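re: that chain from earlier
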Amino acid sequence: MTGKLRLGLNIDHVATVRNARGSGYPDPVRAALLAAEAGADGITAHLREDRRHITDDDIARLSAELTIPLNLEMAATEEMLAIALRHRPHAVCIVPEKREERTTEGGLDAAGQHNHLAPMVAKLRDAGCRVSLFVEPDERQIDAALRLGAPVIELHTGRYCELAEAERAEELRRIADAAALAVKAGLEPHAGHGLTFDNVVPIAAIPQVAELNIGHFLIGEAIFDGLAPVVRRMRALMDSAR
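^ sequence. v structure.
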């Protein structure tokens, strides 16, 4: 798989700042529209059970106003399934979720949760949503995604990002091998979690990876440099890797 590597911007933490004061700003939908103008190919938003950042209203507005694809991240619950089926976003990424965690910790155990996930994946696919599973770069999880009928996997890059630069080679190889295996199996591999200007290029250079989803770092950098310049810089780094 070659060609342009897509950038999905996660806008969750624009909503985090907004919610800190209980006000209407900064508006994550405005951020999404600005990001689209700056070169983002899609917008990702995680509607969590506790609504700690993105809200139901945000999802409704994003669904109505975006002209680029919306990727709804959600836990595998009946509540979230009903919301996804109501809005029918372009993509739905099923992620693990624990109420006490600060951010998503590790990948979904698609293999161990097959019977729970199978009817959800089927309903989402029937509704026209591109279903993705956020998993570790592991052959067992890739096989599970294939058996579940999810056409996309998003490989968790958190461990790669947390390692010192000199120690990343083995984890990078795991991710690259998983991406190659996914394509061989007929799946489209994406990647994300923890990516920054300093560590994105080796991941972006993996030819089978079709999309990166990046959020917290870009929203943080936007405080200093503005959202549009930050998106354009990440876009340029990704393009340079290809």
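The chain has a mean pLDDT of 94.
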